[in-house]
Design goal:
Elements: E1 3-7, E2 12-17, H1 22-32, E3 39-42, H2 48-59, E4 63-67, E5 70-74, H3 96-105, E6 108-111, H4 124-132, E7 136-140, E8 143-147, E9 157-159, H5 165-175, E10 181-185, H6 191-202, E11 206-208, E12 214-218, E13 229-230, H7 235-248, E14 249-255, H8 263-272, E15 277-278, E16 282-285, E17 295-298, H9 313-316, E18 321-327, H10 336-342, E19 347-350, E20 353-358, E21 367-369, H11 373-385, E22 389-393, H12 396-399, H13 405-410, E23 416-419
Parallel strand pairs: 2-14, 3-13, 9-10, 17-18, 21-22
Antiparallel strand pairs: 1-22, 1-23, 3-5, 4-5, 6-8, 7-8, 10-12, 11-12, 14-16, 15-16, 18-20, 19-20
Bound molecules: uridine-diphosphate-N-acetylglucosamine and phosphoenolpyruvate (PEP).
Keywords: Cell cycle, Cell division, Cell shape, Cell wall biogenesis/degradation, Cytoplasm, Peptidoglycan synthesis, Transferase
EC number: 2.5.1.7
Active site: 116 (proton donor)
Length: 420
């Protein structure tokens, strides 16, 4: 079990450069198997999810090589392989192999995915999408079995009952090589979906409307890569460093940021009273003064991201008064709360509303557990402000999505230690 050891009373100062987006990368890697050529990505984050996706590729005889942010994938010798378990269970996005294998072979066997334990995460909309395209879907033995008839998949119009990133991407992956036209209505609009569409279109796909609520896909028979795809910066990693810098910084420059992807988050920081200096592709966060409490309500993009509701908590704990967080996507995303209470934070939850009272001046180090990725990183934020040592257990969860943690924090004058 990996532990993160954090000495308290360390303030952040210096620079950090944001890496490629986890949630793009984990869709792009499964998407690569749709290609009839080798594929190359750069700005690939060095996170555990990438390593686990590479293991899954290997099971299908797809070789991959990752070095210094560049990932090469060779799907030209791919073998049709059932994926009922193993590394599939180590991350959420392994469910993208359902859409990708269906698009490639017209059939797929994929185990139920893992990923962050943030409350119920059904995949009924993914299945509804596959069925609309003509697939037969059966769930048994903790896996999803998807088949098609002799004619394979055919384009269809699909209206999602709710906005789902995963279902939108999975249907895109299945439809991109299907016969005919697919229209996804009530599609998710996240930047990572646009990134995936850019990658596929550059290989010859016909996807229009990604980033809006209606995506139109004309199926094509082949996809060929001609250039390296550069992954967009991770808006959640950026938001995390911005929050920790505002809560506990002496002047931090966060580089490689697409500020348009962070609009609701930046607006909230400004409302709190953080005096941000927003530049072309970076944001400078000076030392904060007189922080005000706010209410945060999460919603799908372009709303305030659920993945940033925990990382903003260290900052809200520094504001003068009562803040509230309402996570409409994952009301049970509260794994951080009992752990933060152990450290002396005034944070509670009742009837789906998280209440935070600040300013907290007397946090103390403790042994806590990173129940999931964003819970873990927000505990790290508190640990840096606390008195004494904090040991964050199950730190693997943080490393699922935050690359080169030790090195990046060292660039911010913070020493962290990992113990395996
Ligand atoms: C790998 C990846 O990109 N993960 C992100 C993705 O997860 P993920 O794609 O799993 O999240 P969704 O956008 O699908 O989920 C949104 C909401 O819809 C519900 N739902 C979803 C699908 C479905 O078939 N039925 C259903 O009821 C979910 O329970 C949730 O309440 O978007 C989430 C919401 O922005 C983020 O927190 C995750 O970081
Ligand atoms: C919930 C998250 O990830 P995943 O969907 O991969 O579990 C996240 O990145 O905050």
């Amino acid at each position: 079990m990996t532990k993160l050891l954090v000495k308290g009373k360390q303030r952040l100062s210096g620079e950090v450069t944001i890496g490629g987006a986890k949630n793009s990368t984990v869709a792009l890697i499964p998407a690569a198997i749709l290609a009839d050529t080798k594929v190359k990505f750069d700005s690939v984050p060095d996170i555990l999810d990438v390593r686990n996706l590479m293991l899954i590729l290997e099971e299908m005889n797809v070789s991959s090589h990752f070095d210094n942010g560049v990932l090469e994938v060779d799907p030209t010798q791919i073998a049709k392989t059932p994926l009922p378990g193993g590394a599939i269970q180590s991350l959420r996005a392994s469910y993208y192999f359902m859409g990708a294998l269906l698009g490639k072979f017209g059939e797929a066997v994929v185990g139920f995915p893992g990923g962050d334990n943030i409350g119920p995460r059904p995949i009924d909309q993914h299945i509804k999408g596959f069925e609309a395209l003509g697939a037969h879907v059966e769930e048994k033995d903790n896996a999803v079995y998807i088949t098609t008839g002799p004619d394979g998949l055919r384009g269809a119009t699909i209206f999602f009952d709710l906005v789902s990133v995963g279902a939108t991407i999975n249907v895109m992956l299945a439809a991109v090589r299907a016969k005919g036209t697919t229209i996804i209505e009530n599609a998710a609009k996240e930047p990572e979906i646009v990134d995936l569409a850019t990658f596929l279109n550059n290989m010859g796909a016909h996807i229009r409307g990604a980033g809006t609520g209606i995506i139109r896909i004309e199926g094509v028979s082949t996809l060929k890569s001609h250039n390296t795809h550069t992954i967009i910066p991770d808006r959640i990693e950026a938001g995390t460093y911005l929050s920790l810098a505002a809560a506990n910084g002496e002047g931090v420059l966060v580089k490689n940021v697409i500020t348009e992807h962070l609009e609701p988050f930046i607006a909230k920081l400004i409302e709190i009273g953080v005096d941000l200096d927003i530049r072309e592709d970076s944001i400078y966060v000076p030392k904060s003064h007189n922080l005000k409490p706010v209410t945060v309500t999460t919603s799908p993009f372009p709303g305030f991201a659920t993945d940033l509701q925990q990382p903003i908590t260290p900052l809200l704990l520094q504001a003068q008064g009562n803040s509230m967080i309402i996570d409409t996507l994952y009301p049970e995303r509260i794994k951080h709360i009992p752990e933060m209470q152990k450290m002396g934070a005034q944070i509670t939850t009742q009837d789906g509303i998280i209440k935070i009272t600040g300013p907290t001046t007397d946090l103390t180090g403790a042994v806590v557990e990173a129940g999931e990725i964003r819970a873990g990183v927000s505990l790290l934020g508190l640990a840096l402000m606390a008195d004494g040592m904090t040991v964050i257990e199950q730190a693997d969860n943080i490393l699922r999505g935050y690359e080169r943690l030790i090195e990046k924090f060292a660039g911010l004058s913070v020493t962290l230690e990992i113990e395996d």
